[in-house]
Amino acid sequence: MNHPENLLDAVRYFSDLGVCDAYMRRIKWPGGKITCPACGSERIGEIKTRHLLRCKDCRKQFSHKVGTIFEDSPLGLDKWFVAVWCIANCKNGISSHELGRALGVTQKTAWFMLHRIRRAMEVDGSDHFDGPSEADTTYVGGKAENMHAKRRAQVIQGRGAVGKTPVHGVLQRGIGDDPSQVRVSVLGSETQAELLRQVRSRVRHGAAVYTDAASAYGDLCLTHVHKAVDHSVCYVDGEAHTNGLENFWSLFKRSLKGTYVAVAPFHLFRYVEEQAFRFNHRLQSDFGRFFRRCRLYGDRLSRRLQGWPKKPPSPRGGERSIRSPRSWSVSQRRRLRRSVARSGVSEKCSRSSVNLGFSSLVRQVYQCPKKPPPAGAKKPSRRTKGGFYESPTTAPPPAPPPPPPPPDHLRK
Fold first, then answer.
1. Structure pTM?
2. pLDDT tens for residues 184-197?
């Protein structure tokens, strides 16, 4: 079998890790010449017992997963390839719960795997559409009819789009045997300048653009052949319609409502790109979409995904944040002392002064800046918490002068 044709063949074909490794090497190095990602050398050796490669010049070890979405993952490629096959060929997507049950991993692991794969599905979008195009905006959020009356009165103040996330799309209509293509992006603000920028950055100047009767597209006539259709009157007016893009919106919302149910706003752009990838390659076979997905390797995705809310900065400052030494376990303290002994740092940490000595040891190993003591401060005692210095003792302030005596006419 040259390549699998369906899901059953894919599970059987990629059940052997040796086959997966050889297949990944053919994808990463199509010419057959393996190069070192560090120095670019072609003198590469193989460590078969660990499934690793080793450069003979810079002596660094690497694998065929380096520089891909599979990098630094403890899971084997047999599970990764099946996950890629499922999300590439399921029309409405696949949930993390279903994928976790199918692969035998937890829901959290499956969720992160899906987001890594969605990272590889993102379209560059630097090319411009030449043919007739359609532009439209949809809104993702809860329905007013499903809200409580009290919440509906608080959230919805005006149109039904209030409180929802706008998603803008531009679709180029199919030309000959080439199917229609779509570019989608999540908008931070739905302003006239932003909508015009989205259209002009994706459609070549002078091409035909069809939109609805929204007033924000009025200035498109300055750079494009713009025609609008009023949906309150009709949906098709000759060549002016947005039915192709409405078809994509229906597919996208069907996957959100039926498969994913709830999506965080800061992760919405990944689900949009996932549906756009399947839509743009809908005429290819299952293996074609799978192979194209594996070829779209790029930067690896760290555990903290792009768009995820960041942690607040550490109150201690600096890049490294550690716990208080009082909360460390005995094994952690022993490990730290052994590493310090190997590195040659000497520090006295007796049992009676374990808190103070260990705090100083942590600061030396992790290079945490220690606040200098103020002038005239006394050394901390064993009962001082955390080893902080006491405030210097100063003389009491002088007594205020006595009030002046009253005038003579007020004396008795």
1. 0.69
2. 999 988 889 999 99
